[in-house]
Specification:
Layout lengths: L1 H27 L8 H14 L2 E6 L3 E7 L7 E7 L26 H17 L7 E7 L8 H7 L10 E12 L3 E3 L2 E4 L3 E8 L3 E2 L9 H19 L6 E10 L5 E2 L2 E10 L2 H21 L3 E7 L5 E3 L1 H15 L4 E3 L10 H6 L2 E9 L20 H16 L10
Helix pairs in contact: 1-3, 1-9, 2-3, 3-9, 5-6, 7-9
């Protein structure tokens, strides 16, 4: 194991310059969900260069690579990276900033792809050191419903060969570059989108007695929805109900006919999730009808909550401590953000862990999904090496089952 660790560390150092270049190319050329055609082409070029076989066109633009170690049928571990960017105009001063107007890798998916390509190159170089197969999942459309994960699964990505484990790495800005974090059990929330339309009767703002004001009604609905969390949710069950957008096409002296609202609901329990949907419907419709208006509620069912398999996550924590040192492995708290990796975790023992990217001394500390987001690129050495370390160890004969 010591020799394997030293080999992976050495390869990570030697490949870093190349992987930084890959990350910068991907960062400069972002593509939105379901549009990752050039990104897929670039990934395939690199896999060809590394001598790794692959299939493309999975879930539209997804790519699945296969690296066979000794006795390729002896087991399988899947490593996943998402591919899509966000519709954000980049405001960094980096030389490698996005060249595509209004599009940016503001969630670190460029880092995820670069690290997975780096890990792939390492694993291809040491394939005589482990038995079984590593499956590389380059997944499109994580940022947009229904998400690329469920589409890839429906197209058979978890078969032929069937992985024992699925692992994903995701950047985070509250960990320093060189650190990683893990959380066993429920880690990220389910997420659904709320769409509410209130229809009243518009008119002159100076004659309120002649209108049925949808703006006033919508305001009552927003306030009432907050009682779902404060008065209906179990205090120990994390729950979010937030309205993020209200549109009423009136003016200073015009009350519109209708108001549209959009928001999100997030939690960690599927039964309670369904109850929240019913409460939103009941509260919104009853308030609108009680004030003389009509109301239509649509809730788009999104990603399930992410459950990191405790046995696998515990093993990865031990392996990360061996590779990085225990001081660089942190325990994470639950988050109300969401991830379509949860679909993989519903089907196979899985873990999504976090890769630190922050460097306060260099001013690299912006949050994900912001226009100033960037990473300390030394995280790439940690990221690619750790993924390769995880996969090669989980494919050792004595570690393939973990009694999960």
């Amino acid at each position: 194991m010591v020799q394997l660790k030293q080999k992976i560390e050495a390869l990570s150092r030697s490949f870093l310059t190349e992987i930084v270049e890959i990350r910068r190319h991907l960062h400069q050329n972002p593509e939105l969900s379901c549009e990752e055609f050039q990104t897929a082409d670039y990934i395939c070029e690199k896999l060809d260069e590394y001598g790794i076989t692959y299939h493309r066109g999975i879930a539209g633009t997804g790519v699945v690579g296969l690296i066979e170690g000794r006795n390729a049928t002896a087991g399988c571990v899947a490593l996943r990276a998402d591919m899509d960017a966000l519709p954000i105009k980049e405001e960094t001063i980096a030389a490698y900033k996005s060249v595509v107007q209004g599009k940016m890798h503001a969630c670190g998916h460029d880092v995820h792809m670069a690290c997975l390509l780096g890990a792939a190159k390492i694993l291809q170089s040491i394939r005589d050191q482990y038995t079984g197969t590593v499956k590389l999942l380059f997944q499109p459309s994580e940022e947009s419903y229904p998400g690329g994960a469920i589409t890839m699964i429906n197209e058979g990505v978890l078969d032929n060969p069937k992985p024992q484990f699925v692992i994903a790495q995701h950047v985070i800005n509250n960990l320093q570059a060189g650190d990683v974090g893990l959380k066993p059990g429920p880690y990220m929330a389910s997420t659904d989108e709320i769409f509410i339309t209130v229809r009243g009767k518009g008119g002159h703002a100076a004659t309120p007695s002649q209108v049925i004001d949808p703006i006033l009604i919508a305001s009552h609905i927003v306030i009432a929805l907050q009682q779902i969390v404060s008065r209906h949710a179990d205090p120990v069950m994390p729950t979010v109900v937030s309205i993020g957008k209200i549109t009423g096409e009136g003016r200073t002296n015009i009350i519109p006919d209708e108001v549209k609202m959009e928001g999100t609901v997030r939690t960690y329990n599927e039964s309670w999730r369904g109850e929240v949907h019913q409460l939103i419907q009941k509260i919104a419709v009853s308030i609108a009808e009680g004030m003389g208006a009509t109301c239509h509620v649509r809730i788009a069912h999104g990603y399930p909550f992410l459950n990191n398999n405790p046995g696998l996550t515990g093993k990865l924590h031990t392996l990360a401590s061996q590779y990085l040192g225990p001081d660089h492995v942190k325990d994470l708290e639950q988050r109300m953000t969401a991830e379509d990796f949860a679909y993989f975790a519903q089907r196979r023992p899985s873990c999504l862990y976090r890769l630190g990217i922050t460097n306060e001394a260099r001013g690299i500390n912006s949050n994900l999904h912001t226009a100033t987001f960037d990473v300390d690129e030394h995280c790439l050495e940690t990221g690619m090496g750790l993924m390769a370390w995880f996969a090669s160890n989980l494919l050792q004969p004595e570690l393939k089952t973990l009694n999960l």
